[in-house]
Amino acid sequence: MDQHDNLLGVFQSIYRWRKTIRNVCLLALAGSVVISLFLDNYYQATTIFYPASPQLANPELMFGNTGQVTEYYGSDHDLDRIAEIATSKEVEDYMVTRFRLYDHYGIDSANSQGPFKVRKRFRSLFVAQKNKNDAVELSVEDTDPKLASDMANAAREKINAIGQRLTKETQARLLAAFEDNINRKKTELEILGDSLRRTQAFYGIYDPGAQGEQLSLQLTTAESEIIRSRAKLEVLEKNTLIPRDTIAYIRANLAAYERQRHQLMDKSEDNTNITIRRFNEGLPQISVLQDLHFQARKQLSYDMERYNQIKAAYNTDIPSLLVVENADVPLMKNRPKRSIIVLTTLLAAFFFTVLSVLIADAYRDIRWKDITQEGQ
Fold first, then answer.
1. Which of 83, 90, 320, 372 counts the highest number of beta carbons within 10 A?
2. Is residue 15 part of a domain?
3. By residue range, what is the domain housing residue 162?
4. Are residues 292 and 304 in the same domain?
């Protein structure tokens, strides 16, 4: 019974103050309509893109030096990196400068708080976030629909440029390291080449294979001729019928071959003629120098090829973003929703007025003056 009485009292209070409630609601309705009509229309332009995989700028994958499959779309880490770039101060400052947002937003650039205010204003109209399909959705609001579209596309291109710059900075450091290494190895190669030429000139060894074969053949021929000549002399010298000229000729040949053998086995420091001993002494040194020279040329060739691949990747315009949708000029405003503003204001006015009426009726019998005097 008490609940029915309380509910009846509420309706009685509302009915008693119906004109006041009506007037307040009408006033709120008229005020909200007028205010909403003076609010600027904001248009939202949106561009959608995916982060490109950094592997696209990898020289090994570009030139097929690995069997790894190229991933064209970036991972979650790449998505976070792009989102971080999108909210960076560099992007904000670029947009403020390019589109003259101080003048557009009516902010005094000479004011000490001007940079803070213009960035805050821009951030309130700029959103870059991941959508349900794991793509980056970049939106810009402005009272000018064409400007909103231009700003969204420009922000996306700036993000792309920053992402490319970060990749190219890494490649530039690699190129600098390779250039330094290549120059150092060229110097080392020149030193090895000079050492090899001096050693070859000292020992007279320029073609170890052919010269070694030739020396072996000469020594073998000399040894065999010496043995053959001595055998002839042993037989022919005992025969009185053999002319002395023939014996002298054989002795001369024996002396020539013995002299040739002696020259081939000579230990003297005279390097005008190559000998077997000098050949055996110089061959290990020349072989080591030739091997080092070959390895240095091979490594230099590999480094130069790697350098050229990195340079080709550096000079190639590889995007850091894969655009799904450009920001077109919006045809419909995004806000304000005037009907929602008016309806919300009307309902708020009604409920607050009713609440005020109920509170006023509930405490109307209290003598506030007596309570105040008692408190004193």
1. 320
2. no
3. 40-186+321-339
4. yes
The answer to whether position 350 is within a domain reads: no
Q: Does the residue 24 lie in any domain?
A: no
Look-up of token digits 């919300």: 344
- Token readout for 135 is 């793509």
Predicted TM-score of the model (pTM):
0.70
What CATH number does residue 70 fall under? Answer: 3.30.1890.10
**Opening angle at CA 303, ends 299 and 304, nearest 5:** 115
Tell me how far the alpha carbon of residue 71 is from its chain's centroid. Answer: 15
What is the number of domains present in the chain? Answer: 2
151 in Cβ contact with 340 (< 8 Å): no
From first to last of its 376 residues, the chain has per-residue pLDDT tens of 455 556 666 777 777 778 888 888 899 889 888 887 888 899 999 999 999 887 777 777 766 666 565 677 778 888 888 989 999 999 999 999 999 999 999 999 888 899 999 999 999 999 999 888 889 999 999 999 999 999 999 999 999 999 999 889 988 998 999 899 999 999 999 999 999 889 888 877 788 888 777 877 877 887 787 888 788 777 777 776 777 787 788 778 878 877 777 776 765 555 556 777 777 778 888 888 889 989 999 999 988 988 888 888 888 888 889 999 999 999 998 888 888 888 998 899 889 988 888 777 776 665 555 555 555 5
Enumerate residues 6+ apart whose C-beta is below 8 A from 274: 203, 204, 205, 211, 215
d(CA 126, CA 92): 10
